Amino acid sequence: IKLRLEKQTMTIFSAYAPQKGESEEMKNNFWAAAFSKTISTIPKSKTILIGGDLNGHVGKKTDGFDSN
After folding, report:
1. Are 10 and 46 in contact (CB under 8 A)?
2. What is the rounded CA–CA span in Å between residue 34 and residue 41?
3. Which of 15, 20, 46 has its CA nearest to residue 31?
4. Bridging pattern class, strands 8-16 and 47-53
5. Which pTM value belongs to this model?
6. Partners of 8 in the β-ladder
7. In Å, how far from its chain's centre is CA 33?
8. pLDDT in tens, 23-65
9. Contact between residue 47 and residue 10 where contact means Cβ atoms under 8 Å apart
10. Contact 27, 18 (CB under 8 A)
């Protein structure tokens, strides 16, 4: 999505990365081809807001949240 805010254009980019258990090839294709290639088409002078589920994990476990 591109938004024009006064004299500035902001690009909002939403992505869903392959999840745990998917092949390394699929993950590499996403990061190298889909994500990086798309981001590189946006001029550096423009503001980019990236959101979505990029499948990062917080903490030692990757199988959910602790109840504590």
Report:
1. yes
2. 11
3. 15
4. parallel
5. 0.58
6. 5
7. 12
8. 889 888 888 888 888 888 888 888 888 888 887 665 566 565 5
9. yes
10. yes
